[in-house]
Design a protein that fits this description.
There is one protein chain. The protein has 127 residues and is mostly beta strands. 6% of the residues lie in helices and 46% in strands. The protein contains 1 helix and 11 strands. The strands form 2 sheets. Strands 2, 4, 5, 6, 9, 10 and 11 form a 7-stranded mixed sheet that branches. Strands 1-3-8-7 form a 4-stranded antiparallel sheet, with no helix packed on it. β5 (46-51) and β6 form a beta hairpin. The longest helix has 7 residues, at 103-109. The protein is globular. The chain starts with a strand and ends with a strand. The relative contact order is 0.31.
């Protein structure tokens, strides 16, 4: 069992930055593929980024590539999402998720490949 708690959301102006954190409980954090998703009002939850258990492999959605960076710290059992050059269209609730699958399986399988989810943190980007 893994509990995930997101933090770091807030209100920021376009062009600004935020860093989200996802703290995981449990001793098996280092074995999970970890991902970030987001859901804007009236839209489906969409993939943002994913990182392998080792941190050596990452994938990003095209809309955030070059602006967002996913990382993880095994010593702190925490995953991060550094978000730069934020745009109003980045406004959403951001969720972290953990998958028992490999990073490739999790990335190609989408939301259904993830076993645990956090409650989400709101990110609002004003124009």
């Amino acid at each position: 069992q893994v509990q995930l708690v997101e933090s770091g959301g807030g209100l920021v102006q376009a062009g600004g930055s935020l860093r989200l954190a996802c703290a995981a409980s449990g001793r098996t954090f280092s074995t999970f593929t970890m991902g970030w998703f987001r859901q804007a009002p009236g839209k489906e939850r969409e993939f943002v980024a994913v990182i392998s258990w080792s941190g050596g492999t990452t994938y990003y959605a095209g809309s955030v590539k070059g602006r967002f960076t996913i990382s993880r710290d095994h010593a702190k059992s925490t995953m991060y999402l550094q978000m730069n050059s934020l745009k109003p269209e980045d406004t959403a609730v951001y969720y972290c998720a953990a998958s028992k699958s490999s990073v490739v399986t999790a990335h190609t399988g989408g939301r259904g490949s993830y076993d645990y989810w956090g409650q989400g943190t709101q990110v609002t980007v004003s124009s």
